Amino acid sequence: MKLSLVVPVFNEAECLPLLLKELRAVLDPSGLDYEVIFVDDGSRDASLALLSREAVLDPRLKVLSFSRNFGHQTAVTAGIDFSTGDAVIIMDADLQDPPSLIPEMVRLYQEGYDVVSPQRLARQGDSWLKRGTAALFYWIMRRMVEERIPPEVGDFRLLSRGAVLALRQFREQHRFMRGLIAWLGLREVILPFQRRPRVAGATKYPLRKMLRFSWVAITSFSALPLRLTITLGFAASLLGLAYFLFAAYAALVLKSVVPGWTSLVFLQCFFFGVMLVSLGLIGDYVAKIYEESKGRPLYIIDRVWNIAPESGPTRRVVVLEPRDAPPQP
Ligand code: UDP
Ligand code: MG
Q1: CB of 14 within 8 A of CB of 46?
Q2: Is the CB of 145 under 6 A from ligand 1?
Q3: Which element (helix H / strand E) includes 33?
Q4: Does the CB atom of residue 93 touch ligand 1 within 6 A?
Q5: Which residue, 319, 32, 46, 3, is CA-closest to 200?
Q6: Alpha helices (runs of H) in 250-313, residue ranges in sequence order
Q7: pTM over 0.90
Q8: Ligand that comes closest to the CA of residue 210
Q9: How far apart are the first and last CA of the chain?
Q10: Whole-number Cα distances in Å, 115 to 9, 160, 259, 305
Q11: d(Cα 268, Cα 191) in Å, to the nearest integer?
Q12: Contact predicate 43/9, CB 8 Å
C-alpha cells in the first residue's frame, strides 16, 4: 500500500529538519511506499527554501507552495486534494503529532477503519489557557454543534482513500476539517496518545486565531447562534412585558409613578444591546453566504515540486507558469 502524509507548514524552518529526520526514521524501515506532501502556507522564513532543496534530492517529498497565507485548514485541504496514497495521514510540522504513531495508525487502517483518530491524553507544553479554551471548545462543539466530533482529537488523522474522495467533495470556504470528517460518519477508531510539546518555534495559533477558528467551526456547522438569538429575543421580550405590566400596575393601582429614569435607561440599553448582537450575528451569516456565493477558488498554488498538477476538484487554482522561470523571448 501507499501512504501519503500531509504536512501544513507556516514558518517552521526550525522544526522541518527534525521532522524529516524523524519521519525517515519511522517510514524507511517500515517498507511502506510513501509520499510526504508539504503545503507551504505562505511562510516568510526559510521553510520553502529548505523544503525545495530536500524535494530535489528525494522525489517522495512533494511540495505545494501557496501564493500567500491561506490558513491551516486550507493548507490541509490542498494536501488532501493532491494526495495519491491509499491512506492519508495529516500531521503538524512541529512534531507535536509523533511519527512513531504512524505504524499503529496504518495497522488500524488495514484492519478496515476509514478514519483513525489519535486522541490527546496529555497536552505537554500547552499553557493552561490553551488547555482550558480547548476543553471548552470541545464541550460546546459536542453539546451543541456536532456530537460525533470526538473530544481531544485534532487534525492529526489517518483517512482512507474513500474518506479522502468524500472530503474532496466539500468545497466550502469556511472550513472546519474535524467537523467535516465527523459529518462523513465513516468507521472510526480512537487511538490515545501523549501529545508532546513543540520541538522548536512558537505556536502559530495565538488566542486571536484560536477564537476565530472556533467561531468558524461553530458557524460553519450550525445555525445555532442564530437560533439562540431568537431565544434571547424572546426572553428579553418576556422580561419587557413583565416590566410593562408592573409599570401599568404601579401607575393605575398604586398611583406611585416616580420619574423612573433609571429603569428607562436600563431597558433602552438592554434592548439596544440585544438588537445589535442579533443584527451582528445575522450579518456574520449573511457575510458567509456572500463569500460563498462568489464561488472563488479555495487557494492559489504558485509553485510545486515533484507534483504533476493534474485535474482534481474544482475551486482550486494552480499557477502553471513558475515564477522563477526564465522570461520568454
Ligand atoms: N499552520 C499553517 N498555517 C497557519 C497556521 C499554522 O499551515 O496559518 C500550520 C503550522 O505550521 C503547523 C500546524 O499548522 O504545522 C499547526 O499549527 P501550530 O502547531 O502552531 O498550532 P498548535 O499545535 O499550537 O495548535
Ligand atoms: Mg502545534
Answers
A1: no
A2: no
A3: strand 33-40
A4: yes
A5: 46
A6: 261-293
A7: no
A8: 1
A9: 46
A10: 23, 6, 66, 28
A11: 53
A12: yes
H helix count then E strand count, the chain? 10, 9
Cα separation of 74 and 69, whole Å?
9
| pLDDT tens-digit readout, 160-219 | 999 999 999 999 999 999 999 999 999 999 999 988 888 888 888 888 899 999 999 988
User: What is the spatial distance between Cα 4 and Cα 127, in angstroms, rounded to a whole number?
Assistant: 31
Which among 117, 91, 122, 118 is positioned nearest to 6, based on CA atoms?
A: 91
Set of cell numbers at residue 197:
510539546
Rama region for 255: left / alpha / beta (φ>0; ψ in -120 to 50; rest): left
**Residue (of 56, 12, 10, 6) closest to 201 by Cα position:** 12
Atom of ligand 1 nearest to the CA of 210: 25
| Strand pairing report for 33-40 and 188-195 | unpaired
- Bridge partners of 191, per DSSP, are 118
Q: 72 in ligand 1 pocket by Cβ < 6 Å?
A: yes
Cβ atoms within 10 Å, residue 117:
24
Q: Which of 69, 75, 71 is nearest to 37 (CA)?
A: 75
